[in-house]
Amino acid sequence: MTVVIGAGIAGVMAARFLHEEGGEVLLVDRSRVPASGGSGAAGAFISPKIGKGGPLQELTNEAFAFAHRFYRERFPEQFHPTGVLRIPKNPEDETRFALYEPHNYRPFERWDAARAAAAGYRNVPGGFFFPEAGDADAQEVCRLAAAGIPFVQMDIRKLERTGGLWQLIGNDGMIEADSVVLATGYESPLLDLRYMGIRGLWGSRGDYATARRFPVSCHKDFSLSSTRNGRVKLGATHVKHPEPCRICDGRPLAELERKASAIADTADFRLIETFCGMRATSRDHFPLVGPVIDAERTLEEFPEVMRGAKVELIHYENLWILNGLGGRGFVFAPLMARHLARHILRGESFDGRIHPDRLFWKWARRLPNEWRVEN
Fold first, then answer.
1. Which domains does the chain have, with CATH numbers?
2. What is the DSSP secondary-structure string of 313-331?
3. How far apart are CA 128 and CA 225, in angstroms?
4. Residue among 187, 256, 247 nearest 6 (CA)
5. 197 Cβ neighbours under 8 A, 6+ residues apart
């Protein structure tokens, strides 16, 4: 049996694909329902990445293509592919759009200011419109993806390997498993994962009632959804401060509302509900999907890695991670979960772009001098 720890979008998708590939799965979370943290607070905008090309944009757009098909087929009532208009963040970004265009995901359309205005967006120079993009109902998708998979509410406090099995120990019991998937997001208290550089990114979202009709969603350095049933979503993954609640001063949506009012008529927006939560990202912003290194044992047995030597890394047995999806969790999660499930159950190799080992070498070379062991 494989136990997946964490029932955000990463965990429920890992459990879903393991289940569908024929594995025995148990989903565990400290909350009684999936998506009670950052995933449930997400705007769940599902769109391609724009930029000047490169591995991260390529991977993101591969994940978007997979996610688009996956959500349309599996969750047609919870996925809303009304299209997303990507507009420049500032005048400097506007000049770069010409450089971005050759690398765009296709299909896309180049909109001018008049066409953007016809969709309800003012004071913008136009942008790229991706007709296959959209947004999903975050909590509903997570809960439906977890449907039919055994679920246990437990706050796991300790993880031990004994007699060929993993023991997941909580305050009110213990679970034994053949293998474990860590999908715990920005919190990783069970093992030393410092080499992965996982950090939290705070996101806020507001759901508003409005009589305004926005036929397509819009993304700048925040996202405003299309109107459905008299409601829109306004959100962003935008705060890196370790104590975001202190700096928002009780108004997590104030800055987003100000920005939205600059590009749309928000005069009648009436806040219905506020959602806030922490998402997790890696040091290089690529997802973390694969085995976990026993960093302490590796450094003890091969101290030369701290001087740049390449050695055979020591991994925990039957322990995997799916994490670091950042603000694009609903884009990355389905494809990353399929990669992981097929590796665990079929032995398929991992894409090097997402393998967590990539981050160990540089981390080891940068360890403090007092940690170094000389020959």
1. 2-37+141-198+283-371 (3.50.50.60), 199-214+221-275 (no CATH)
2. --EEEEEEEEE-BGGGHHH
3. 16
4. 187
5. 282, 283, 284, 359, 363
Q: How far apart are the first and last CA of the chain?
A: 43
How many Cα atoms within 13 Å fall on the side-chain side of residue 301? 12
CA-atom Rg of the chain in angstroms: 22
The candidate with the shortest Cα–Cα distance to 210, out of 189, 193, 229, is 229
C-beta separation of 111 from 127 below 8 A: yes
Q: How many whole angstroms from its chain centre is CA 328?
A: 4
% the chain with pLDDT above 70 = 94
Peptide bond into 107 cis (omega under 30): yes
Using DSSP bridges, classify how beta strands 217-219 and 84-86 pair: parallel, antiparallel or unpaired: parallel
Q: Where are the beta strands (DSSP E) in 30-153?
A: 45-46, 79-80, 84-86, 109-111, 127-130, 134-136, 151-153
Please give the structure tokens belonging to residue 171. Answer: 């305050």
**The pTM of the whole model exceeds 0.85:** yes
The two tokens of residue 346 are: 């079929």
3-state secondary structure of 229: coil
| 243 Cβ neighbours under 8 A, 6+ residues apart | none
* pLDDT category of residue 243 using cuts at 50, 70 and 90: low
Report the C-alpha gap between 265 and 269 in whole angstroms: 9
% pLDDT > 90, the chain: 88
User: In DSSP terms, which residues pair with 167 in a beta bridge?
Assistant: 160, 176
Yes or no: say if 8 and 183 are a contact pair by the CB < 8 Å rule.
yes
Q: Which residues contact 16 (CB under 8 A, 6 or more apart)?
A: 145, 146, 149, 337
